[in-house]
Q: What sequence folds into this?
């Protein structure tokens, strides 16, 4: 037997399957933000939709500052927890 050139990701749970299907179909935004009557859901949905449809380089450039701010907040919380 020869190994495949490209591996196939088999979802472990139904949730994983639903998320992968949404990503493949370009509906991940709808899965995350499902209440269009709320302004916050509409705004965040549009942002995620733009990131989803943008080229990978632009998406990485857009997410980089958010990721660092998120990680900084997480590290700050961990340090607080460790000190107490």
A:
């Amino acid at each position: 037997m020869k190994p495949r050139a490209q591996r196939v990701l088999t979802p472990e749970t139904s949730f994983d399957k639903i998320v992968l299907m949404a990503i493949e179909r370009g509906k991940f935004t709808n899965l995350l933000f499902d209440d269009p009557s709320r302004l916050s859901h509409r705004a965040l949905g549009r942002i995620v939709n733009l990131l989803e449809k943008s080229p990978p380089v632009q998406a990485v450039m857009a997410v980089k500052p958010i990721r660092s701010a998120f990680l900084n907040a997480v590290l700050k919380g961990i340090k607080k927890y460790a000190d107490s």
In short: The chain has two domains: 10-53, 55-84.
